[in-house]
Amino acid sequence: MASENLDVLIVGAGLSGVGAAHHIQSAFPHRTYAILEAREAMGGTWDLFRYPGVRSDSDMQTLGYRFRPWTQAKAIADGPSILEYVRETAAEAGIDRHIRYGHRVVGAAWSTEDSRWTVDVESGGETFQLTAKFLYLCTGYYHYDGGYTPTFPGIERFGGTVVHPQQWPEDLDYAGKKVVVIGSGATAVTLVPAMTDKASHVTMLQRSPTYIIAVPGEDPIANRLRGLLGDRLGYRVTRWKNVAVSTLLYQLSQRRPRLVKSLLRKATVKMLPPGYDVDTHFRPRYDPWDQRLCLVPDGDLFRAISSGKASVATDEIADFSETGIRLRSGTELPADVVVTATGLRLLAFGGIRLAVDGREIKLPETMAYKGMMLSGLPNFVFTIGYTNASWTLKADLVSEYTVRLLKHMDANGFRRCVPVNDDPRVSERPLMNFQAGYVQRSVHEFPKSGSRRPWQLSMTYAVDAVQLRRGRVDDGTMQFG
User: Fold this and answer.
1) What share of the chain is helix, strand, coil (3-state, %, to 5)?
2) 193 vs 200, 210, 220, 301, 480, CA distance in Å?
């Protein structure tokens, strides 16, 4: 029998979970809630990743919470600064007192008769249950236990050290050593310049190039506005300015990809030495924003290449030798340390088993409502951020809509809400229509999105801001009881 009944149960104490708790606590100060966190620390991604140079891959004016201004000068912030921001947000509001560490949620079952979730929790080698009227998952979408590493022929022969960024050893010594970073995404382009401070040389080995854009490490407009308008108003104006710029770039990339390709190539040429083979190493096969653009603050990757401390090899791996990596072209890259920045493993909702009235829920058979709830699952919300903008932009909107939903239920005496897809015109689409390898490997295990609203997944913050803040809660698709 469950020993505790909560009004709201939040799963995950990362950026999303702390933000969700802030919204719930502010709107409903008398409601009971708890945050269950499987790990022993707050911060999610920003506590887990400890590799050199770890930083945000979007500006902090949009990655920061809407309700708490980011006041540091850096626009592209380092991981420890972001972690401190999350922890300070939790401490200031007393949210940290509601977090229960080492509590892994493994299952959740809804009972229509009781109008509540019964949640199975593992902690300290024991399993127990608690109940909640509303279940709010802030678990992210990747596997926290380990990243993705392909099978590399002959890797067992390699005499050096192999590490994955998601499990970075605290005692890794790469001073004076030759480092090869396998990958070309945000993690790789962060690691390469960061490791040049100690390594004798760092090579980024990529199978194919990625779009990379240099941005200022500090946003002079944001800093000026903060001085003129104050922290809160300056932050709000900068946030919308950055949303507008990123939306414009995304829409232009979708409609005029050749133009954006040309602009990005010209910018890259300016950042690299004369005669550098830009088309081999920095001309991707796909269009901009088919995969996420990689930001490099102050062009640090390009500066590392220009200085000779770093280089790029665009080739495929044939196999490993005792002293390095042999490429398909016949070239051998000598290495003492190999970093496999080869991506994430996706995991839907932290691997939690879900059931409704004794029936197991198979996620691919559900459809995402407004990108934040699932068809047929009552009193259930999840957070998955944008792929083309900052995660927190969507996380804040999800929290705001959840508050509106709960207030509507209170005002009308409802105990449950559930989105129901009964529109035969709606066809299925992938939840994340994104070409990145880590998405394509696992997207079939996730819920679907639909071809029409409110089942259609939006990737435009301005549209979502209007719909989730102002749109009707009782829209005919959401059913109450």
Assistant:
1) 35, 25, 40
2) 12, 16, 23, 5, 53
**Rounded distance, CA 274 to CA 332, Å?**
26
What's the pLDDT at 68?
A: 94
pLDDT score recorded for residue 288? 85
CB within 8 A of 204, min separation 6: which ones? Answer: 181, 183, 184, 188, 189, 192, 310, 311, 312, 313
Superfamily of domain 5-145+345-480: FAD/NAD(P)-binding domain (3.50.50.60)
d(CA 134, CA 34): 11
Q: How far apart are CA 470 and CA 359, in angstroms?
A: 34
Neighbours of 231 (CB within 10 A): 14
pLDDT for 2 equals 47
CATH code that applies to domain 155-220+258-340: 3.50.50.60
* Spans of all domains in the chain: 5-145+345-480, 155-220+258-340
Burial of 424 (0-12, 13-18, 19+ CB in 10 A): exposed
Predicted pLDDT of residue 286: 87
The two tokens of residue 32 are 């009971």
Q: Taking phi first (over 0 means left), then psi (-120 to 50 degrees means alpha), and beta for anything else, what does residue 287 get?
A: beta
What is the C-alpha separation between 369 and 376, in angstroms, rounded? 10
The CA distance from 208 to 313, in Å, is 9
| Domains 5-145+345-480 and 155-220+258-340 are alike in CATH topology | yes
Distance from C-alpha of 371 to C-alpha of 382, rounded to nearest angstrom? 8
d(CA 478, CA 19): 24
Reported as type and span, the H/E element at residue 213 is strand 212-215
Give residue 100's pLDDT.
97
Do residues 253 and 260 lie in contact, with contact meaning Cβ atoms separated by under 8 Å? Answer: yes
d(CA 145, CA 164): 12
d(CA 429, CA 330): 42
Nearest to 382 by CA among 101, 140, 104: 140
Task: Enter the pTM of the model.
Answer: 0.91
* Low-confidence stretches of the chain (pLDDT beneath 70): 1-3, 433-440, 442
